[in-house]
Amino acid sequence: MTTTSSGKPLRADALRNRAKVLAAAEDVFAAQGTSASTEEVARRAGVGIGTVFRHFPTKESLLEAVLVALLERLAAQARDLASAADPGEAFFGFFARVVAQAATKQAVTDALAEAGVDAREATGRTGPDVKAAIGTLLERAQRAGAVRADIGPSEVTALLAGISYAAGRAGGSDDVLRIAFDGLRPQGGTADQAAARR
Amino acid sequence: MTTTSSGKPLRADALRNRAKVLAAAEDVFAAQGTSASTEEVARRAGVGIGTVFRHFPTKESLLEAVLVALLERLAAQARDLASAADPGEAFFGFFARVVAQAATKQAVTDALAEAGVDAREATGRTGPDVKAAIGTLLERAQRAGAVRADIGPSEVTALLAGISYAAGRAGGSDDVLRIAFDGLRPQGGTADQAAARR
DNA sequence: GTACAATCGGAGTTTCCGCTCCGCATCCGA
DNA sequence: TCGGATGCGGAGCGGAAACTCCGATTGTAC
């Protein structure tokens, strides 16, 4: 991450500017949505527009870089929790934390959706990372009996994106989260069986 | 809905064109997302751009009209199911139907989100309609013991929006739907749940 | 049938935004 | 310290999309 795509080492100031731009982009996109203008990012970063476009030749590539950074941070958080004492608590805690973040930062939701569908270039590389990290978190929780056994990382990621979306819009995210958690726990039987039993 | 905002009766052709524009807008926004151009809508409707802007002075107002139409249709569907034989089936069937629609029509998701937050002018009038219709559906299902008793229409609407969003992006919508349904059912109260709730 | 008003159509205007270009500033190796 | 290479800044280009305006057209009352 310290070189350009052509392999040349970057000058010190260029490296600094690249970081400034990335941080500013993250702020701006989080606050105003992904349709915020590149000029706004440049202003926030305290650099010229030309600088932004030199480091990220396309607005799409800038967005992608921001999303990748978000996803990497998510993956790191998930990995940190992989060795927690209580697997169930680790899994649900991670879930809740992501949703809480998404409530204010719309970009997180987009990032999660992106990770689910990928099709993008760079996210196609970190997307699986997130899914893998969530996967181990999920597996441990399942082995501990805290989470139902009949779902995989894809379903969790999709649900995460959906609940995050809901939390970002509506106010009462706690209740929705509770419903999702209950749905994720081991069920007393299949849907039909449960219905027949009552 | 047959007069302009100034109260004058509309000419017959104007009325026809207005309907054509609305239908075309619904199609276009469903297919290409809400960022589709007004010109595209006009082309699809077979009218000039000027006509579109006369009936809907702003793109936002056009979008709003489309969303209101969607919400009204949703509310009508919900009301029709309010007298179904099996309240649980009615509730979950409605839920599944909405999600299935959202998988292809992104606009539905936006409409639901809009209904949850409103803040808009016209949706502020039909949003409550949807919520009320869902409310009766929910209440009957709750009284029949098919849905947990500790949630209200707001939570259902939010969850509906979130799951619809997830279904529209990721592929495996069935599994996510299953998780949501299980979360919506009355909870038997596993040891963990009982411990967590108290 | 006629006249008038309402409506239509679409070229043109305005605004906004992604992106380029190139003279100037800054860095860094010798 | 000095010179070449690298990076910076921001005016400006190109195009897309929302919205306006007015002559042509069409519906409707009499």
UniProtKB/TrEMBL annotation, chains A, B:
Residues 37-56 bind DNA. InterPro entries: Homeodomain-like_sf, HTH-type_TetR-like_transc_reg, HTH_TetR, Tet_transcr_reg_TetR-rel_C_sf, TetR_SbtR-like_C. It holds the Pfam family TetR_N. The keyword Transcription regulation applies. The keyword DNA-binding applies. Residues 15-74 form the HTH tetR-type domain. Keywords: DNA-binding, Transcription, Transcription regulation. Signal peptide: none annotated. This is TetR/AcrR family transcriptional regulator. It comes from Actinomadura napierensis. The lineage of its organism: Bacteria, Bacillati, Actinomycetota, Actinomycetes, Streptosporangiales.
